[in-house]
Write a structure and sequence with these properties.
By secondary structure, the chain is mainly alpha-helical. The protein is built from 5 helices and 2 strands. It has a two-stranded antiparallel ribbon with strand order 1-2. A hairpin with a 4-residue loop joins strand 1 and strand 2.
C-alpha cells in the first residue's frame, strides 16, 4: 500500500464504518449491506400512478364527448378551414402535375382563349345579348340569395 495514503487516513478499501448497517433480528447478527430503497414504498407509488392512469383512461370517453359538445362550432370551423387548405393544395399539385406534361399546358391555354372569344362574341358585342346576360345574372342571384333581393 502507499504510505502517503495511509498517513492521510484514506484507504483504497472501504472500512466497516463507511458501509450502512442493517440489523437482522433483535440485534443478534449484524450484516453489512448497501442501503436500498424500500421496495414497498416504491411499489405503492407505482400502484398509485397506475390507479390514476386507469381512472383517467376510464373517464377519457366522457372527457372527449364533453369537449366536442362544448366546442362543436369552433371545431367545425377549424375542420372546414383545414379541408379548404388541403383541397387548395391538392388542386395546385394536380395543376402543377398537369403543367409538367408536354402539350397539355398550351392546349388548355388554347381552350381558354377559345372560350373567352366565344363568350365575348355571344354576350358582350350587342346590347340585346348584354341585356340577356344581365337577366340571366339576376335570375341566378335570385336563386342563390332568395327572391326579392
Amino acid at each position: 500500500m502507499n504510505p502517503e495514503i495511509e498517513e492521510s487516513g484514506y484507504s483504497e478499501y472501504p472500512s466497516d464504518t463507511d458501509m450502512p448497517k442493517i440489523l437482522e433480528g433483535k440485534g443478534e447478527t449484524e450484516r453489512l449491506l448497501p442501503a436500498t430503497v424500500s421496495v414497498s414504498t416504491s411499489s405503492n407509488q407505482w400502484q398509485e400512478y397506475g390507479e390514476r392512469i386507469a381512472a383517467f383512461l376510464q373517464d377519457l370517453p366522457r372527457y372527449v364527448t364533453q369537449f366536442f359538445s362544448n366546442y362543436k362550432g369552433p371545431l367545425g370551423t377549424v375542420g372546414l378551414i383545414l379541408a379548404v387548405v388541403i383541397t387548395v393544395k391538392v388542386t395546385l399539385a394536380l395543376l402543377d402535375a398537369l403543367d409538367d406534361i408536354p402539350l397539355i399546358a398550351p392546349t388548355l391555354e388554347l381552350i381558354g382563349l377559345a372560350y373567352t372569344t366565344w363568350f365575348v362574341y355571344r354576350y358582350l358585342l350587342s346590347a340585346a345579348s348584354r341585356q340577356e346576360l344581365s337577366q340571366d345574372f339576376q335570375n341566378l342571384k335570385e336563386q342563390v340569395f332568395g327572391t326579392g333581393s
